[in-house]
Amino acid sequence: MSHVVSAPALQPAIPTVIPVREILPWAIFGGLLAIIAVYFVGAEQGALSMFDGMYVHEFLHDGRHLLGFPCH
Amino acid sequence: MVRTLLVRGMLVGILAGLLAAGFAYLFGEPQVDLAIAFEEHASAAAGAAAEAEPELVSRAVQSTLGLFTGIVVVGCALGGIFGLAFAYFHGRLGRWSPLLTAAVLAAAGFIVLVVVPQLKYPANPPAVGSPDSIAARTGFYFLLLGLSIAVAIAALGTARQLMARLGGWSAALIGIAIYAIAMAGVMLALPSISEVPADFSADVLWNFRAASLGIGAVLWATLGLAFGALTQRQLTAGRGR
């Protein structure tokens, strides 16, 4: 995994500061996806339910408890 | 550049999730099993005719595939956001190496997203917590989580404004003090929830909560250290040793 490829000269160094306008679209989109992911692991079919049934709740049950989300 | 950092964050997040899930399997699952045994014993004693609820998902799946799926998905999501946060903060906190920026960000993430919310509303094993209060408990938990993030961002903004005048050390201490005092106030204002059954084992409760904090520690330590190491290597490589 950590085989060192001889440093390609083309690879740019990280610029000292990345402008906000380059980060913002990623941040908004990524933030929305992250919220949905955390919602499904942390709360779906617990306090709130988008889908009927308990399958999501039961499948993710142990992770939900151990990650500290209120489960049931 | 942002793309590289986002992808790296998600991949390191998956790795962090796998390690945290392994930790959860070794140290958390035994406590979950003990809590479920207590739950079944209590409902049997209460005379609920030993009519086992039909299992949608077996314990074997819950404690392996379900556990790993949940923690790895959260790890990947947090890792992606971590990568984007790194993209923003790198170079904006002073002349810090990628290694240091990633480590400090991860430590802050662990405190703001895990430790502080759990001080007020700690993780609960099965059998602890009344089903009637799940909506309120979930609401207060996410409210505290959201306030912790908002207060941390506000405190950081204040600290960065003070940095030019007071220097990094004093500005950082003032930022930390603002966060600590504001969160103490928030925690005093929010209602306390204590629904632990009187005869629930204190050992199991403590071990479960310690395991839960341990999962967060493994997740954030991996995220911060592995992301920092990979980004540091890329930076030095880019400069052409």
From TrEMBL, chain A:
Transmembrane portions of the chain: 23-41
Record has Transmembrane as a keyword: yes
Top-level taxon of origin: Bacteria
Descriptive protein name: Cobalt transporter subunit CbtB
Short name of one Pfam family: CbtB
Keywords, alphabetical: Membrane, Transmembrane, Transmembrane helix
Keyword Transmembrane helix set for record: yes
Organism name: Rhodopseudomonas rhenobacensis
UniProtKB/TrEMBL annotation, chain B:
Key word NAD present: no
Alphabetic keyword roster: Membrane, Transmembrane, Transmembrane helix
Protein name stated in the entry: Uncharacterized membrane protein YhaH (DUF805 family)
Organism for this UniProt entry: Rhodopseudomonas rhenobacensis
Keyword Transmembrane helix tagged: yes
Residue stretches spanning the membrane: 5-27, 65-87, 99-119, 139-159, 171-190, 210-231
UniProt superkingdom: Bacteria
Entries under InterPro entries matching the protein: CbtA_put
